[in-house]
């Protein structure tokens, strides 16, 4: 199967023509590096942090050809690889099976995703209170299995404020509100979350995936970061964001993976906002691949100084046999 290329024009052709007023540093196109530059690039990092969706595989089209071979090649060259995804929709066991099915060897602790990161954070602060979750069922199950208490699911339908009232008001002593991807998010859930955060200034406000837009089946849909912003704006509070591109996730990863020198890390992702911005927040080098949400045209129109990747490549598979 052909991997997705976002334009009929060669991306290298478009990238080489990139002239953005806020982008004085030229992006390096990986396939145009000389052998010496390739070697220097390869020698410049030890740890790779790799996004999954639209980098290793695509939700609707399965595995991106060449990805497992590229990862295997990187490991054989002595690079350590960990995976940083914003996707907490599936239980970790399903995700591990997906890696296995695609022939990629991975251990649980090598996958960083918001549900686990937030669970680890709550444990680290010995959190002991009721949690209200705007998340997937898999996310909630992970927290419950770790021993945390969650507010029961809300079920109801309202056509007037009288019926709406019990859906949005609660006396539950909630001490943490968590927002991540929730495909069943409703207005009443958002309003209830707002109420908990406004009523109790001590109530923790934690965010997972910070994507303002997600790409599903080639189309942009509103992402969880947009709903997180609604809560931030209406409560005048800032969420502790433990998914990409959150600063909270940076601190978590630096600590957990004992990263001393961020420039010796390479972040590989397909999203300018989630991946490249996160790499910049962390001080990592960054490689943007064009198998997902970013098109070659976006490189000309959407980059800002803080979002510009160090390198661009059409796909992760380009790294297979990179030095040969
Ligand atoms: Mg992605």
TrEMBL record:
MF (Gene Ontology): metal ion binding; phosphatase activity
Cofactor binding remark: Divalent metal ions. Mg(2+) is the most effective.
Positions with a binding annotation for substrate: 244
Binding site for Mg(2+): 51, 53, 270
Active site: 51, 53
Signal peptide (UniProt feature, chain positions): none
Coiled coil regions in record: none
GO cellular component: cytoplasm
Keyword vocabulary terms for this entry: Hydrolase, Magnesium, Metal-binding
Cofactor: Mg(2+)
Transmembrane segments: none
SUPFAM superfamilies reported for this sequence: HAD-like
Family membership: Belongs to the HAD-like hydrolase superfamily.
PANTHER family tied to this protein: 4-NITROPHENYLPHOSPHATASE-RELATED, RE04130P-RELATED
Protein name as it appears in the record: Uncharacterized protein LOC105232612
């Amino acid at each position: 199967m052909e991997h997705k290329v976002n334009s009929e024009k060669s991306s290298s052709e478009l990238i080489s023509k990139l002239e953005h007023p806020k982008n004085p540093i030229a992006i390096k196109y990986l396939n145009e590096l000389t052998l010496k530059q390739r070697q220097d690039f390869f020698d410049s990092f030890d740890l790779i942090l790799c996004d999954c969706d639209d980098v290793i595989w695509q939700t609707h089209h399965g595995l991106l050809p060449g990805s497992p071979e590229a990862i295997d090649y990187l490991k054989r060259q002595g690079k350590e690889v960990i995976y940083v995804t914003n996707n907490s929709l599936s239980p970790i066991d399903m995700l591990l099976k997906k890696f296995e099915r695609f022939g990629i060897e991975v251990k649980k602790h090598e996958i960083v995703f918001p549900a686990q990161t937030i669970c680890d954070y709550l444990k680290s602060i010995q959190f002991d209170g009721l949690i209200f979750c705007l998340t997937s069922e898999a996310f909630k199950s992970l927290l419950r299995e770790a021993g945390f208490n969650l507010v029961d699911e809300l079920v109801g339908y309202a056509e007037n404020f009288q019926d709406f009232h019990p859906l949005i008001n609660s006396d539950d002593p909630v001490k943490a509100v968590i927002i991540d991807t929730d495909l069943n998010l409703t207005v009443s859930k958002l309003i209830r979350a707002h109420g908990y955060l406004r009523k109790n200034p001590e109530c923790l406000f934690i965010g997972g995936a910070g994507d303002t837009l997600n790409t599903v089946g080639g189309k942009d849909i509103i992402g969880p970061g947009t709903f997180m912003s609604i809560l931030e704006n209406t409560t005048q509070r800032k969420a502790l964001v433990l998914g990409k591109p959150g600063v909270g996730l940076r601190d978590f990863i630096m600590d957990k993976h004992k990263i001393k020198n961020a420039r010796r890390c390479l972040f590989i992702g397909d999203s300018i906002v989630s991946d490249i911005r996160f790499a910049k927040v962390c001080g990592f080098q960054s490689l943007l691949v064009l198998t997902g949400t970013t098109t070659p045209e976006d490189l000309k129109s959407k980059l800002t100084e803080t979002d510009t990747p160090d390198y661009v490549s059409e796909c992760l598979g380009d790294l297979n046999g990179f030095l040969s």
